Amino acid sequence: MRKRKLKLGFAPTRRKVFSKEEAGRQRKLILKKIKSLGGVEVVDINWLNDEGLIYDISQAHEVFKKFRHEFVDAVFVPHCNFGTEDAVAKLGKELGLPLLLWGPRDDAPGPDGLRLRDTQCGLFATSKVFRRMGVPFTYIVNSTLDDPVFERGFKTFAAAASAVKAFKNMRVGQVAPRPGAFWTMMVNEGELLERFGLEVVPLTLSEIIKRTEDKVKADRKAINRDVRKIKTAVDTTSCSEESLQRMVGLKLVLKEWAEAEGLGSIALQCWTAMQEEIGIVPCFINGLLTGEGLPVTCETDIHGAMTAILLQAVGLNERPIFFADLTIRHPQNDNAELLWHCGNFPLALKDEKSPTLACGPHFGMEGNMIGCGEFRLKEGPITVARMDGDHGEYSLLMGEGKAVAGPLSRGTYIWAEFGNWPLWEEHVVRGPYVHHVAGIHGNFAPALYEACRYIPGLKPDPVEPSETEIQKWLRGQ
Asked: With respect to CATH, is domain 6-146 assigned 3.40.50.10940?
């Protein structure tokens, strides 16, 4: 995986009328805690003054300049006592980044009746100023550092901020137009650019084919090296050496193109012109690239490619996603659905018990074209998502289930069990969604939900858990 660590600006705050010493103590405890949780690179403000705390509005712009210079992706403004609401609100407004608001739960008043922090009261004040200034923020309920709700909230925020970072810098490569009959894959490229800043980088199929042919001829060492890797990983007895070389050539060309253009994903016209011109199917290669952190979506699905980037990012780019069709309901389990595609799932996600017939001929296409993977994915919790839109409105379908055992299917597949599949089906049918989804192992619906706070024009559409259930979970209930 191509790991990209999230940079978090750490801007703790206090108010002058409360205990300076107690605020300093809380600052150290909070910093130690978030560093122990991992997953982020912390950019501190210990250079600002001898406390490393914001307590005056005049300090906000200095912190802003430092965070911009360090290219932070998000900011955490823990209130170490009441806090200074005008300073952190100004900082949040200037940065325009995902922002986490939290403060440690207050201790009981001392024997003399005096209170050292009044942190919760300050959180109420700051949140109001955020609203007045139009600063979106994520909030963790007032709690102790050791309360599970803090760790839950912090990790969810980091995952959401990672998704926002990926979304704001999104470039998708488009190889050829959508297949002619696939009206479901229509997109409004101009609107996506205007609304979300998405840059689509097109490349013709003829150019990809030419580059592949040239790569096979000119870079024999790299081609043979990667062919050996595939032979070591899977059974290739049904593949000719020429077919394997073409597959590897295609993989190297797509990867080099993505690196040169700064692409987060590729939407590829995977059939039928490619088979006619180059004599292979790209399914298995799509899976290898996806497993390396470059998701490749089928049938030139631009919205699917955007979803894949978001889903990979909420996993902090530490685990591969898979791109699937919603196909058929389980023959016995009313709440299970077959998540499937011809052969494009990452080999890294294969169930150890699943037989592998990877790099074989495509089972459903004329000509026995080579390059199709066949295996079952590993079981466990999964998150499924789909960004889509029509009539100028966009939403993000999201929810969680679990990958379970089920009947054998050709291609790459997993049976996914949900709490209420008819509810999912209704969401998809009523739209604006299609039959393509991205999936990732783990529970990330709350992070996707939080990410939508920072993406204007993208409405969260949770299925299971519901919006109410996500909000309760984030509160620790």
From this structure: yes
Task: Report residue 466 as tokens.
Answer: 């519901």
Tell me how far CA of residue 38 lies from CA of 102, 247, 316, 374, in angstroms.
Answer: 18, 38, 11, 36
**Strands of 109-259, DSSP E:** 138-139, 171-175, 199-203
Tell me which amino acid residue 111 is.
Answer: P
Tally of CA atoms within 13 A in the half-sphere of 427 that contains its CB? 23
Q: Is the peptide bond before 465 cis (omega within 30 degrees of 0)?
A: yes
Residue of 440, 446, 443 whose CA lies nearest to 474: 446
Residue type, 87: A
pLDDT in tens, 278-330: 788 899 999 999 999 999 999 999 999 999 999 999 999 999 999 999 999 99
pTM, two decimals, is: 0.95
As a whole number of angstroms, the distance between CA 378 and CA 431 comes to 29
Cα 162 from chain centroid (whole Å): 7
Q: Is residue 161 classed as helix, strand or coil in its secondary structure?
A: helix
* Rounded percentage of the chain residues whose pLDDT exceeds 90: 81
Q: How far does Cα 292 stand from its chain's mean position?
A: 14
Domain ranges in the chain are 6-146, 176-474
Separation between Cα atoms, residue 381 and residue 356, nearest integer Å: 22
- Please compute Rg for the chain using Cα positions: 25
Cα(67)–Cα(236) distance, integer angstroms: 51
The single residue listed with the structure tokens 């000509």 is 367
Task: Please report which residue ranges of 411-453 form alpha helices under DSSP H.
Answer: 421-430, 445-451
The amino acid occupying position 184 is T
Provide φ and ψ at 300, rounded to 5°: 55, 45
